[in-house]
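ARCHIVE CARD
SHELF: 3
SLOT: left
DATA:
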Amino acid sequence: MNAKQPIYPPLEVQFLDLLKELQPIFVNALNSLGDKRPSDAGSSYLARVAITVNRAADGYLLLRESERMDVSKLLIRPALEAVFCGTAAMKNKEFLFRKAYSEWEEDNKLFAMDAAGKKKASEYLEGLKRAFKRHSPDYPVICKKLQVQEIADMAGLLSAYEGAYRVYCKFTHSAMCAVSGGLNDVTDIKDTHTMVWCVIMMLNQLKQFTPAAIPDLIPFGKKLALLKGHISDNPTTIRRRAQ
């Protein structure tokens, strides 16, 4: 009896191996922060949002190794958005309060349904402003909603937004080209590359702006770039069953 053949071409296996190498580094980095006090509100937020990237990468790897390719794609967009947010927090001090304000606006659509709810929401916002000014006086308080595109621009990652993010939004929004399988051939071999990129980006941010214990990441970045250079030569992944 023939052994079951892997569905992934060799290049995808190498991408997955790279992600597996990075996962314990990411976990150790987060654990190393322990109860260390962050230097400012931005680095505190960065450490928290890094957990989202780690969880997305961990789930992605588990699903990919279980040959659940289609569902694994749904974890790429949140990882990208978390990278945009964490990076923006470190590059632009406007980000933090505007992000909080944007979430407050969205919450109002759910909970501020009458005059009493709107009054309570307004009081909450005023309290949030006072607390933010007290605890983070170096950060501006600006009540202006943020969109993901602007966050990516703040982060200096607009090209990733215009490219990968727009593509993976199609999977989470159930676009016709995604649910019909029309995007599989062009994304299958790029999925793990994108997730590895998210992990390396977040680790670099943690290394630069927090006391997290992280080794030299240059070899991992070089390996990712080398593998990326072979994507166009890669055969498509074999799908054995409906996912």
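SLOT: right
DATA:
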Amino acid sequence: MGSTRQRSFVKGMSWEFISFVITLAAVYLIYGNIIFSIKFSVILSVIKLFFFYIHERAWKKLKWGKIKDGDKNNSSI
């Protein structure tokens, strides 16, 4: 079963929100400057979201490790 481009995008956005909050908190704890922390986190989030989307779409194209529906003989679990 595959994923749509929209699903990949929303999945990336939801993870990036979590990552953004973690990055914001970490940068703020280190530098103590909320404006710098927000700017840094926004720029980093845009870059990471772009690369996550490319990564997600590339993995979707790979057949390695996928199991066809109903094919339980290839399962490693």
